Amino acid sequence: MEKIDIDTEMLESAASMLKAIAHPMRIAIIHILEEGDKKTVTEIHNLLDIEQSTTSHHLGILKDKGVLASKREGKNTFYFLKHESLKNIIACVSQCTVKA
Question: pTM value?
Answer without folding.
Answer: 0.82
